[in-house]
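Problem 12. The chain below contains 710 residues. Write out its predicted structure in token notation.
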Amino acid sequence: MKRQRRKTKRGRVTAAPTILANEALPSRVIAMSAPITFAPLVASADGAEAMPRLSVVAYTGVQMQIAGWWHPVVIDLAGLRVGAASRPLLREHDALRVVGHTSDIRVEGVDRVVLDGVVSGTGPDAAEIRAAARNGFPWQASVGVAAERVEFLKPGATASANGRTFTGPLYIARASLLREVSIVALGADDSTTARLAASRGKEHHMTFEQWLASLGLDPQTIDASQRTNLQAAFAAIHGPKQTTAVTASAATADDDANEPDHSAEIVARIRRDAAAESARIAGIQAKAAGHPEIIAKAIAEGWTVDKAELEATRASRPIAPTGHVGGAAPAPAAIEASMLLSIGVDQATVGRWYDQPTMEAATDRRMRNVGLHELFSFAAAAAGVHMPSGRFGDDHIRAAFEAERRLIQAQQFSTFSLSGILSNIANKTLLAAFLAVERVAERLSHVRSTSDFKAFTTHRLTPDGRFEEVGPDGELKLASLKGSDYANQLKTRGRVIALTRQAMINDDLGAFTEIAAHLGRAGALALERAWHLLLLSNPGSFFATGNGNYIEGAATAFGIGGLTTLEQKFRDQVDAAGEPIMVSPKFLLVPTSLAVPAQQIFAETRVNETTTTNAAKPANNPHAGKWTPIASPWLNSQALPGSSALAYYLFADPADVGAMQIAFLNGQRIPTIEGGSTDFTTLGMQWRGYWDFGVAMQDHRGAAKSKGEA
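Solution.
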């Protein structure tokens, strides 16, 4: 720990705050406990029991006495990060005992941490808490805070936090993170207080022999095997740590002598750690017996007993999968590529998704036509789970699910994931189907990203002013900017797909990918339908004579004359000052009933029109090559209100002036597929496909419409 000295105005050396490095901190999780206030329980209209709502004042900014810390502790609320307002509400800090969730966690003013929540769980812990709350039991909340940067005030030194001035000796957590919230039966105190799970000790450079003596062991009497194990435990507990530079006060070497003696506490912690490490080593030796190389690696790298057991199982009895593919499980990417090829995705497309070595492995003769049965066998091989022989059935499905569970528990989920492989296949199938749909909406709209589902407003600035002649004084007049607001809001659309037990037994991968492809098409069509519904509904008279972007009447029928009138209407639009905006149309949007005439006008330099006496008359085409024609069947679909087989539109480049806007959550412009488990009564797997987007009208000067009356 580095020390620095500072002088007061009188030249006297005083103590400056000490910024403690992470390695010098105690266990950094501070659990603040406080009484819970439950709102009165009110039954719903259908008579169902209401979910109890709770509120807690978890901290009031004062200094706290925390077991294991040598001096009081203050949490500086200016540096407290609360993260998300909605967090799981646990029972006794056990992640497997969920009782509800928080609805709000906030810092009020400069000295209060307040949280609100609801007992929304359905398990026995939630039921017990609801019943006890109904009887008035004084539950408490325990809020865990992780101290990330701690300042130590020497005796007599002062510092400010939470609107108060504190005098040392004490600790101030200047940066911290609120991690979790639990309901407990007995907190550290009846008032807002805190407790700490583990103690703090000064750094002691203890030798291995001194450590053995502290445990009551004689270094001369232990055998070689015990010495090896104990040395590994000593290294795990007292191994070298990278220290961080620490800013400290100018105190003399005598300062540390003033600290209280915590040797008994340190020895107790060492013994606990040694006992836990010895138990881990003994478990590894028992589960991996006969594999000394695995035992050595597991002890040195800090493996869990479960991970050591899994690796030993793999090494001792590799299981060849059932089916026609032999050997150990191949790479997940090669399995994915092979399965995509087996359902009919062409090799060129798959080759764009995977590298050359993966494609070579996927097209090897031993990897041809990989289906669900082979995938399940590969998963079993990766986890060392025995796959039953015989006809594929429920036992094989359960073995594959057990393999997935083991891989997760052994922290090997990233190496081979049954649900992950199927999710990747579903995503690629969805993407291919999504991109295959001809899309109109995104080509004609301004696209933006937003980070949440709140209604938002796009503010578009337009210039109000023009270049004017400068007088003899050389003064330039100020041009102002005026704004226009356009509202939009995201909505979520989606469906759930399942890989059923029947599809698994039938080895029907095609049924699964067919549903994924359907979701891809459905996602693309959902956006197109929402966009066209909005366009055809003409909200707020978006296309109107008053806006200068609408024409109707017999002369507006689709043709040279109607297009000429509509183009002029588009180009004649003006800004707020009544002056031309100088925006040109780029796209011609027509119903499919006008697709061929639109293409002819775009491509042909000469067209034949008729006179009033039906006599043919050759004429030059003034609109050849002007606008990219886009034909949409939604415009003349009888399923959509407002549709017409005669109306047509001109759109500007949305990068210049966007008539319509599409917003995506966090810029995600394709649907998402996520895997998950089915409920307990269903032997299968399921995925959800969803997409978050919103559409809105934006700037009426970006488009013009012709009613197209004949």
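Discussion. The radius of gyration is 36 Å. Students who got a different answer should revisit the alignment rule from Section 12.3.
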